[in-house]
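Replying to the earlier thread about multi-chain prediction with a worked example.

Input:
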Amino acid sequence: MRVRNALRTTAQGFALAFITLTGSITLFVLTVLSIAFIMLGVGLITTPLVLSAVRGFANFRRLKAAEWAGITIPVPYRPFPSDMRTGFTGQVERCTLLLKDPATWRDLLWMFTDMIAGYVTALLSFIFIPYAIYGWVLAAGVWRPIVHNGGNEWYAFIPISSQFTANLAALLGLVFLVVSLYVSPLMLRGHFLLCRSLLAPTPQMALTARVERLTTTRHDAVDNSAAELRRIERDLHDGAQARLVAMGMSLGTIEALIEKDPQQAKKMLSMARANSAEALSELRDLVRGIHPPVLAERGLGDAVRALALRMPMPVETDVDLPGRFEEPVEAAAYFAVSEVLTNAAKHAEAERVWLDVHYAAGMLRIAVTDNGLGGVDTTLGSGLAGIERRLGAFDGLLAVNSPIGGPTMVTLEIPCEPYPARPTMR
Amino acid sequence: MRVVVAEDLFLLRDGLVRMLEAYDFEIAAAVETGPELTRALAELKPDVAVVDVRLPPSFTDEGLQCALAARRATPGLPVLVLSQHVEQLYARELLADGSGGIGYLLKDRVFDADQFIDAVRRVAAGGTAMDPQVISQLLSRRSQDKPMGNLTPREKEVMELMAQGRSNAAIAAQLFVTERAVAKHTSNIFGKLGMSPSDDDNRRVLAVLAYLDRG
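Result:
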């Protein structure tokens, strides 16, 4: 186990040493030159290109840190605004934004450290085993031609001049081998920790990014609830309210007619009753859109089950929840599922849908898979973008995988805490 | 016939009581909370209970839970559940024990007093009263399927009424046909859908619902 680990580390260390030296030096030099050439104008064009390569390179190393050493390094880059201009002005804007991002300068510093300290740590994580083998090769007889040809060979601190010293070298090689078993993985870890110290955002940057994110999501949440209230107001105004007015008028007319023309009055009474039934059914739909009754009565699990039963196609539902969640979280999750299922029924023409709702490690995860047409529109203004914004208020995420021709898989995650007891409402 | 009414809103409770009294029901108790309902059902053993789904103190599905618990204690205890919204999920739970004497209707249905009272009587007699909305949801879902597609429009109408819990006589009256015609339709339906025919109204409903629910 330890041996295999050391061997793997050696291979990884070798790759890293190579990447570090070539990648960091090249990109560092290019970046410095490109930034210097901004004065000449050429840099304006090249800098964004070079910097995106730098970011790609840094992201590659972040990926490797997670894969090879289990060290996660967050990405600190500021997102570009969605309404970037195109053409030359856009290019200048992009360049300015990149140069204003402190992460750019930290990347530069990182590349500089990486090609020195990063290279050394990578080297140390792989060099021991080859060097140990070299010691044995010397002892096996290779020392002879070297010494005979006047070579002045040292193995670490041992000058090689005879079979005896070569044997000592082999022994030392063995020591190196044992050392590598313990040191190589440590060095590899050290390498990535070094990367993290410069590639991860500083607390200041993390905080700034968080504040930016919170500002955006708060904006969305406020917008969202304002739009909801407007919709409710409109629905009430045009629906139930109008119907009640009509009913009141009918009743007034009936009062006047009841003695003169009982036949007509009776007819109007049944109309008034029909109106009140309509008003009720409109109110019911409205309530469902604000906060579905099953959600209030039973919580998320049964609410999505009830929702699945109302769909025109069969929905295979698998729910595993430890209890109920905060009401806003439940509502957001419910409406997200509702939107996704409706999409699947309407646009994707799905014949079957699988709905999986479960909770693990502080995260509510919902996956909706359908066998429909795929090619779901996730651009701004689509229903899914709306869901994403709504989930954003809870730091929730939405991922859509929908190749043309299907199947579509929509996954959403909301960090939240359950509470097992039934809450009391009102 | 002795009735227990459970409804937390005074206006509706009062309205229900008046309507039931007008149709010669005896109100054994009119309660407004879940615990009161549980006690009334256990102690008074009414002929039928009319229960609102959402009751205090939790304002969740307390009424439904009380009704289900009471029916576990007294199998077949007739309960008519009223709600502002109908859910297939709840309908399934109510029908799950298969012992009949169950009703599940939208509150709007009280607008038509005759039909509502008819539903109460049917439930009290051990029959079934399912809201048309539950049935139409089930039907719309299965409409693409082969066997349902084979039904004629008239047979579909009969099936819908049958699933609501109506007897052949009631279906005949509603569709303005003879009872013999309805009987012919029902046996056709059972034949086309591969269900075993039954004269017992309650069994019929369960068979149809089970069929609709399949898949």
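The CA atoms of residues 13 and 104 of chain B lie 17 Å apart.

Feel free to reuse this layout for your own posts.
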